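pipeline/complex-builder :: batch 7 item 3
reading input block
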Amino acid sequence: MRIRKYLRIWHRDLGYFFAGITIIFALSGLAVNHIDDWNPNYKITHYDGPLPARFQDMPPLILVKELGLADSIKGFVKTGPASVRIFFGMNVLDVDREAGVYRLEKVEERSWLRAFNRLHLNELKNNWVWFSDLFAVVLLFLSLSGLVMVRGKKGFAKRGVWLLALGMVIPIMFLSGIMS
Amino acid sequence: MKRMSIIFVLALAMVVVGGDQKKYGKEITLKETTSLKTIMDNPESWLGKKVLVQGTVTDVCKKRGCWMKLADDKEGLSLLVKVRDGEIVFPLEARGKKAVVEGALEKITLTMEETIERHKDQCQLNGEKFEAKKVTRPDVVYRLRALGAVIQ
């Protein structure tokens, strides 16, 4: 049929056009699905230790200078009577002069994944939301056109309908609590 | 090979240009800021009212960017700024930067279980021994439900 020919052409070309964003969303989906187990945007490492005695009574600005952070410091805030939080780059240094301890939080960005997540989670807002909507509509089209593109024994009417039903049973089982 | 290079360069460009936005959420409408001290001196009178606050971002939700802590540089006070997940996402790079946030103050009464967990965490942070019998009533927390923010 003529319509099938056009569906095939559109399915193919839209598939090419949106393949990149599909891969990005798939990778981000995998990363974000497991957000309870890891941080998909940053690698965060903590280093704790005792504060050397010579730093303990030092005012924050001098302390920062002594630690060699003067050039990269973004700022600092007092977090308690004897504690200060120093910001440099994406990292944070907490110094508690009364307890005589420090904690360095070192942050490394997972650049690729973070960019993918920002796209997938619609952080960019504005026109990106429209493009995402278009992508969603195209995915719908790809699914529906994919169902009717193949004819014969392996087409939707024979094999396809059973596989479609099976694929829909799984979410229904999760929703009904049969699978958890 | 040439075609693959084009795809790689395009993908790389996407990462590089994915810089941080400075404005988050809705446009700020208020002109005058209210100090954290003014709010925290009498939080009940500010409940539900729209306010504009400013301060240094001292911490950000590391996984979802769904909250940040704003500290007053002069008084050492801090206020939790909360957003609905996904509505606004604060980047971790905001830490140490100045921010102005518009939103409404809200009051959250924690359950006893949440209060105990909160006190346990605080004791752990301060290196103190936690005593459950000292927790006799649920904590009340004031936080700002953010509508819009600008991070400098």
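note: Chain B touches chain A at residues 7, 10-11, 14-15, 18, 21, 56, 58-59, 62-64, 71, 73, 76, 86, 89, 92-93, 95-97, 127 (CB under 8 Å).
queue -> next item
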